[in-house]
Design goal:
This protein is an alpha+beta fold and about 375 residues long. It has three domains: about 1-45 and about 285-384, P-loop containing nucleotide triphosphate hydrolases (Rossmann fold, 3-Layer(aba) Sandwich); about 50-175, no CATH class; about 200-270, no CATH class. Helices cover about 25% and strands about 25% of the residues. The protein has ten helices and 16 strands. It has helices spanning about 35-45, 50-60, 65-70, 145-150, 205-215, 220-225, 270-285, 300-320, 330-340, 370-375, and strands spanning about 5-10, 15-20, 25-30, 100-105, 110-125, 130-140, 155-160, 170, 195, 235-240, 250-255, 265, 290-295, 320-325, 345-355, 365-370. The strands form three sheets. Strands 1, 2, 4, 5, 6, 7 and 8 form a seven-stranded antiparallel beta sheet that branches. α8 crosses α9 (about 330-340). It is globular, with a radius of gyration of 24 Å.
Length: about 375
């Protein structure tokens, strides 16, 4: 598990240190305090800077549209690294070449993302049979003045302790990298990571996640979660439907209730059951890794949140998952607090606030450990 978190130069978080993390972590704060940016940073760290994830984040925030709308945007659209400028604080590449840093405070695990200038030297050698072998050596520079004087190209460099001597490069932006649900774990040093967004996923995407759990030991948990909404739920399935002759075949969820003869559409039961299904299906890809939940309370009545947190506490410990969630709701904080009292695991509430005066560019984290949560009041974590 991550035991601490440091974020520098990433979007709204020019500087943030969270000195302690638990297995269950709930992040609170006012709008625009950086809660979502914390989750996004952890996604990048867990995936060890996977380029497809970074391009997904760029697309999800319309950064490529903003970059292309600039008057000085010229040349091939997919070859401009200006698109990645939106990742940096103030939406500008730092003049001093300083990187985005996301990692633990002790720097045992981290990722750095920086704009660099480079010159590739091509070397050709002949073997005994007369064949030619071509090799490329890349020299990188961080100085803008040197880049201008030498007419160097520029790129985005990604390094971590796992591949410090062989960094990744984002030489071009590629729309083809975009995937709505990035559960990425194919990089060296990467870990499983699953992200449950605020918005509801389509039925097709839920069906894909559903298919991955069928015939696994995890499958029994799906009904446990859904019964929080409806005690009379007997079963659930996904079927193919043809909503229009002009569209491809889609899939949708149906449920069987013990007081109904025929199955009914999942969507007819309201947002709550869809949100819970999204949560329970999102947990499975995070086994042995990290689960990120944005705006936990979205679509959920306050009366079921405590029991839902208790189930998440249980599965996080059983399946070795570290959980990070954000919320705007005091009801969610109370439910998290009560579930933490029951659970025999470490839970931490993290309040993010913006500094003032000389520290206005520094975000401040306030840590409430499990022993502090019992005495926590709404005034301590005012969200308005």
């Amino acid at each position: 598990m991550l035991d601490s978190l440091r974020i520098q130069n990433y979007k709204a978080l020019q500087s943030l240190d969270i000195s302690k993390l638990g297995r269950l972590n709930l992040v609170v704060g006012k709008n625009n305090s950086g809660k979502s940016t914390v989750l996004e940073s952890i996604r990048i760290l867990a995936a060890q800077g996977n380029p497809s994830l970074i391009d997904e984040i760029i697309i999800s925030h319309d950064d490529e549209i903003i970059a292309r709308s600039k008057p000085d945007f010229v040349g091939e659209d997919d070859e401009r690294i200006d698109i990645y400028e939106g990742l940096f604080t103030n939406r500008m590449f730092p003049a001093d070449g300083s990187p985005i840093f996301i990692g633990s405070c002790d720097k045992k695990k981290y990722i750095e993302i920086r704009r660099v200038f480079f010159d590739d030297e091509i070397t050709e050698t002949k073997d005994k049979s007369g064949g030619i072998t071509t090799s490329r050596t890349r020299k990188t520079f961080s100085s803008l003045d040197e880049a201008i004087n030498r007419n160097l190209n520029q790129t985005i460099e990604i390094i971590s302790p796992e591949y410090k001597d062989r960094p990744l490069y984002l030489d071009k932006f590629d729309m083809g990298f975009y995937r709505r649900q990035s559960n990425l774990s194919n990089n060296t040093g990467a870990m499983p990571v699953s992200f449950v967004p605020t918005q509801f996923l389509s039925m097709d995407l839920l069906a894909e996640l559903w298919d991955k759990t069928v015939l696994t030991d995890y499958f029994v948990n799906i009904k446990r979660f859904l019964k929080l909404i409806s005690d009379n739920l007997e079963d659930i399935a996904f079927i193919k439907v043809n909503r229009s002759r002009y569209k491809d075949i889609e899939r949708t969820g149906i449920v069987k209730l013990d007081n109904h003869v025929n199955p009914i559409p999942l969507n007819s039961m309201g947002d709550g059951i869809v949100r819970i299904l999204q949560l329970v299906l999102g947990i499975y890809p995070a086994i042995g890794g990290i689960l990120l939940i944005e705006e936990f309370e979205n679509g959920l009545h306050f009366s079921i949140q405590e029991k839902l947190w208790e189930l998440i506490f249980e599965l996080a410990k059983t399946l070795d998952i570290q959980v990070f969630a954000t919320t705007h709701s005091w009801d969610c904080i109370e439910a998290f607090t009560h579930a933490a009292e029951v659970a025999q695991d470490n839970a931490i509430l993290i309040k993010i606030s913006q500094g003032t005066g000389e520290n206005q560019n520094t975000a401040i984290s306030t840590i409430y450990e499990k022993s502090d949560l019992i005495n926590l009041t709404q005034a301590d974590v005012e969200l308005r």
